[in-house]
Amino acid sequence: MAASVTPFLMFTGAAEEAMRFYVAIFPHAEILRLEKYGAGEPGAEGSVKRADFVVCGQKILCIDSPVPHAFGFTPAVSLFVECDTGPEQEELFQQLSTQGKVLMPLANYGFSTRFAWVDDRFGVSWQLNLK
Length: 131
What we know:
Blueprint: E1 8-11, H1 15-25, E2 30-36, E3 48-55, E4 58-64, E5 79-83, H2 86-97, E6 101-107, E7 115-119, E8 125-130
Parallel strand pairs: 1-4, 5-8
Antiparallel strand pairs: 2-3, 3-4, 6-7, 7-8
């Protein structure tokens, strides 16, 4: 039986930048592990072989794919964040939407009194809900 399920983000050269961005904007977030490709390994030297970080208590893994591929992130899979306060939600919305794409602006949508959905500048999709 499986022991856990962990979100896994595959980038094509921006894994470390994205991870450091997420850790910087979320309180109490931290990098647990950062392993990079060395000379002669399958990935570009210095790119992320594997990184583990924590956001809002959720462990997330990421890599820079050494294999070229014709796909990226899609909003069909997103990270759902429950915000405790309006100011916290607004700050995350501002940070995550800068150079990204707003899919649903901060508003009351009936199912939530205050909700937003954005793709950040790295293409990762985030749903921000006010508790």
